[in-house]
Amino acid sequence: GIILEYVEGGESKTRSIDLLDLRPDTDATALVEEIQKREPLITASCLEHVIHLVQRLQEKLGEKQKHKFSLFKVLRTHILPLTNVAFNKSGSRFITGSYDRTCKLWDTESGEELHSLEGHRNVVYAIAFNNPYGDKIATGSFDKTCKLWSTETGKCFYTFRGHSAEIVCLSFNPQSTLLATGSMDTTAKLWDLEKGEEVATLNGHSAEIIALSFNTTGDRIITGSFDHTVIVWDVGTGRLLHTLIGHRGEISSAQFNWDCSLIVTGSMDKTCMLWDAAAGTPVATLAVHGKEVLDVCFDRAGQRIATASADGSARVYNAATKECIAKLEGHEDEISKVCFNPRGNCILTASSDKTARLWDAATGHCLQILEGHADEIFSCAFNYKGDTIITGSKDNSCRIWH
């Protein structure tokens, strides 16, 4: 779709035009002229620009997923098992966290270690770049602290102290002014990255927080807990806005869609739920998997939802109609991670069966199996362009695929 921005009565507003009928062979000019008849915002002056945008969308639609990934490098990253892996936005660098108490920064192209971030006194579990900038790295540890590092120098800017138990999840806000940490102490905390101090403690859960996520505007954050609930918080005030009640098991993952209107949650109760973010009310219960739902995600456009389960299958849902579009079947063991490529036409899954798989998001057809790891794969990620994949395994190695 295309989002139109306009000003009405002094207020800035947006309206989106749905282009779901667009096909590679559609006459773009005729289509836009047709839309123009119904849409007064498309004036003569911007007609050419909109036609150009639609043609670019068509080119993208026309590109089929022909790219076959092949193994580019194997990095024996740590002496003890890895916990997590993450790319910077461009994919030129990535980080690995480990039970060896360090986080290492790697150059994707050369495979060389750029920095070893040392100083934590226990497992480095949660790690992140402050994308899209990528000049800072955050590490959350079982030592109850979180550290902020310079990507360039590898120096530690701040150590954030205050949690009374292990930090297991963290996230930068999109503006890169705040860091959120979630802990086994049942609280989440917000930290000011300029001043290096705590801004708020989010108190409201009765059990460990294991997932947290900002929305794209950065004014809301959600926390998912072992207490079976997800809480929506106001970032500016630290106030609890909604408690999402409905799951009957621990929450495994939670995420906003791109326009911040919906929240998707996955749970150990074998279901995935969709919620109205503004009202805090349930919209639909999706996945009816045979076992726990271990991961859920939206594509970038927020049109599709993918679920991954301990039953070894993944599923794709249409976010608007709530229908199951595809079942991804083929893994021989549980799937712990699922993500869309940036274009949203491809899905990547990581499994305990030692393989990662690529799937066609529309049909559920398996496009490729990424084999070679000697133990379960617990982490996988695309770079921003979608032409590089990283997989992290219990075999203490990372594999880079081009």
UniProtKB/TrEMBL annotation:
GO cellular component entries: U4/U6 x U5 tri-snRNP complex
GO MF entries: U4 snRNA binding; U6 snRNA binding
Annotated InterPro entries: WD40/YVTN_repeat-like_dom_sf, WD40_PAC1, WD40_repeat_CS, WD40_repeat_dom_sf, WD40_rpt
Keywords: Cell projection, Cilium, Cytoplasm, Cytoskeleton, Flagellum, Repeat, WD repeat
Localization terms from the record: Cytoplasm, Cytoskeleton, Flagellum axoneme; Cytoplasm, Cytoskeleton, Flagellum basal body
SMART domains: WD40
Organism: Aegithalos caudatus (Long-tailed tit)
Record bears the keyword Cytoplasm: yes
Superkingdom per UniProt: Eukaryota
Major localization class: cytoplasm
Any one biological process term the GO annotation gives: axonemal dynein complex assembly
Name of the protein: Dynein assembly factor with WD repeat domains 1
WD repeat start-end pairs: 75-116, 117-159, 160-201, 202-243, 244-285, 286-327, 328-369, 370-402
